[in-house]
Amino acid sequence: MSQPNSSELIVLKHLWSAGPQSAREVHQAVGPGQGWKPSTTRTVIARMEEKGWVERQDMHGMAVFSAVLDRTATLGGLVRHLARQVLDMDGPIPAALFAESPHLSDAELDELDAIINAAEDETKGGKS
After folding, report:
1. Ramachandran bin of 66, using left for φ above 0, alpha for ψ from -120 to 50, beta for the remaining angles
2. Are residues 60 and 85 in the same domain?
3. 9, 19, 24, 101: which has the fewest C-beta neighbours closer than 10 Å?
4. pLDDT tens, residue by residue, 1-23
5. pLDDT class for 123, splitting at 50, 70, 90?
6. pTM, whole model, 2 decimals?
7. d(Cα 4, Cα 70) in Å, to the nearest integer?
8. Are both 87 and 101 inside the same structural domain?
9. Name one GO molecular function term (predicted).
């Protein structure tokens, strides 16, 4: 599965913390800081819906969107990609590096560590 780009990640982070939101609510929260027009926010959300990363529900006649992608698994994939493909790191990746992130609880940090290093173990197992 491909990883979210920076625009998609901004929307995901908002939905993970805020819960289901209309496109207008998402735009009001993240659009101005990104210099986005409302149509840009709607386009990002529509593309994410096509990818299956957000789902649309109709609530009281209004379309609201919620994140389908798991926060910890998604962030784990991004960390793994950064460490392996960008920084050419080898060996275990310490999830504690992200302990100060407001986006992860202690339990999610433990889960992130397991995700990052389990994927590494699977990769090494496949190379043997």
Report:
1. beta
2. no
3. 19
4. 588 888 999 999 999 989 999 99
5. very low
6. 0.71
7. 12
8. yes
9. DNA binding
DSSP string, the chain: -PPP-HHHHHHHHHHHHH-SB-HHHHHHHHHHHHT--HHHHHHHHHHHHHHTSEEEEEETTEEEEEE-S-HHHHHHHHHHHIIIIIS---S---GGGGTT-TT--HHHHHHHHHHHHHHHHHHHHHH-
Handedness of CA 49, 9, 104, 111 (dihedral sign): positive
Is-contact 28 34, C-beta < 8 A?
A: no
Q: Which two tokens stand for residue 99?
A: 């302990």
In a domain, 1, yes or no: no
Residue 85: pLDDT band by 50, 70, 90 thresholds?
A: low
Structure tokens at 80: 């793994």
61 and 98 in a single domain? The answer is no
20-56 confidence digits (pLDDT tens):
999 999 999 999 999 999 999 999 999 999 999 999 9
